[in-house]
Every structure is written in structure tokens, then in C-alpha cells.
DNA sequence: TATTGGATCGCC
DNA sequence: GCGATCCAATAG
């Protein structure tokens, strides 16, 4: 059964959403077949004051989805070859999002189990695996079509906070412990 | 209009 | 440690 998370879940403080997304399942439907992975690693980007955020210089063509209503996907293209998936949070007009950094693929999603550690342990890799491209920029994740997040009732784990990856340029904002992982999960990315 | 550098990854 | 490879954001 499809049971995508509701908009009011996303319309909460970003740090709370980033933590509560852990243990939820990202579902991608492609022509009737499914790629599904448990979210095991996230990062929060909050407001224009956050110098590590794409919104730190105000609203632009690229980041405008972050200013829109919560529960939509913000996809950006980076380093000439990778896409990254974020979910927009908080109320419309306030630019904030949670970057989905790693997934634990479900058994039903895997043709060969041997590569399961590799397919989605990083924001660029998980988008490549799920065939998420910029056509999903602005996609409404509450519709339960093609791409959404659902709750399967998992909450038996500990959350570990650490520094965000790849944002050394942002001064004191690089020191915020706004990266969240499921403690001990081996599918978390290894920078 | 030209230049720059990035919320990454995989191979050297 | 570094090259791949695009494009939005800046500067001029």
C-alpha cells in the first residue's frame, strides 16, 4: 500500500525532519517496478543565514524550489555529473531542505546482493541508482507517484549527529552537527 | 559574454 | 590525490 508522508510532516523544523526521515523508506516507481531504500543518512540546510546552503545568497533560478511549499523535491546538478536529492521543509517562503545522503536498499530492490553496499551510499550514487534527474526538481513527494517517502514503522535505532560533508567553505556553519545517521549502519557514506 | 567553482565519485 | 564534465552564478 502506498502511504506517502503528508505535507505536515515536512512542514516542521528542518532539524526535526532530518532526524525523523531516518528509518523512513524512499520509494521510486519506474514502469511498475520498484526501487526502495531505507534512509540512513541525512543533512539539514536551514535558511539564508546558513552559508553552507544554496539559499545563502538569496532566491535564484537554481534554488527557488527551496522557497516553495514543503514536501517537494529539490534536485540539483553538481560537478558536471551528479544529481542530489533534497526534500523541502518548513513553511512556504522559508528556504530549507534535507539532503538525502544514503540509503540501505531493500532486498526486493536488488538484482545482485553483492553490490548492495555500493549502490546508494552517497547522494550522487543514490540518485544514479534510482534514476533521479532534474526532471524531478519540484516534484510533489506527497502524491505517491514515481517518487515518495513512506513510514514503515521503524524506530528501533539510535541517531548519531556529525558535521556536514563538503561544506568547509562556510566558516562557522561548517561546524554545525547537522548530519544525521543511523548509528552503526554500514550503508552510511564514507567520505 | 567570459570565467569560475561546486552539498561528488572513482580511479590513480 | 586528482580528473571528469556541466551549468548557474558571478563579474566585467
What does this protein look like?
This protein has 191 residues and is mainly β. The termini are far apart. The protein contains 3 helices and 8 strands; from the N terminus they run ααβββββαβββ. Strands 1, 2, 3, 4, 5, 6, 7 and 8 form an 8-stranded antiparallel sheet that branches. The mean pLDDT is 95. It is 10% helix and 29% strand. The chain binds a DNA duplex (12 and 12 nucleotides) through β3, β4 and α3.
Question: What's the short version?
Answer:
The protein is mainly β. Helices cover 10% and strands 29% of the residues. Strands 1, 2, 3, 4, 5, 6, 7 and 8 form an 8-stranded antiparallel beta sheet that branches.
Keywords:
191 residues, mainly beta, eight-stranded antiparallel beta sheet, 8 strands, 10% helix, DNA-binding
Amino acid at each position: 500500500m502506498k502511504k506517502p508522508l503528508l505535507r505536515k510532516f515536512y512542514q516542521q523544523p528542518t532539524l526535526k525532519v532530518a532526524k525523523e526521515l531516518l528509518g523512513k523508506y524512499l520509494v521510486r516507481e519506474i514502469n511498475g517496478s520498484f526501487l526502495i531504500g531505507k534512509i540512513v543518512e541525512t543533512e539539514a540546510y536551514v535558511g539564508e543565514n546558513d552559508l553552507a546552503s544554496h539559499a545563502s545568497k538569496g532566491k535564484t533560478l537554481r534554488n527557488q524550489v527551496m522557497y516553495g511549499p514543503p514536501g517537494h523535491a529539490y534536485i540539483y546538478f553538481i560537478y558536471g555529473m551528479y544529481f542530489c536529492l533534497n526534500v523541502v521543509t518548513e513553511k512556504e517562503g522559508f528556504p530549507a531542505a534535507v539532503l538525502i545522503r544514503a540509503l540501505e536498499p531493500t532486498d526486493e530492490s536488488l538484482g545482485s546482493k553483492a553490490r548492495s553496499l555500493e549502490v546508494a551510499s552517497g547522494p550522487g550514487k543514490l540518485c544514479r541508482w534510482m534514476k533521479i534527474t532534474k526532471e524531478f526538481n519540484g516534484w510533489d513527494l506527497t502524491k505517491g507517484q514515481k517518487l515518495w517517502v513512506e513510514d514503515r514503522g521503524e524506530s528501533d535505532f539510535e541517531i548519531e549527529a556529525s558535521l556536514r560533508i563538503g561544506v568547509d567553505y562556510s566558516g562557522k556553519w561548517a561546524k554545525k552537527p547537522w548530519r544525521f545517521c543511523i548509528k552503526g549502519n554500514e550503508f552510511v557514506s564514507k567520505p
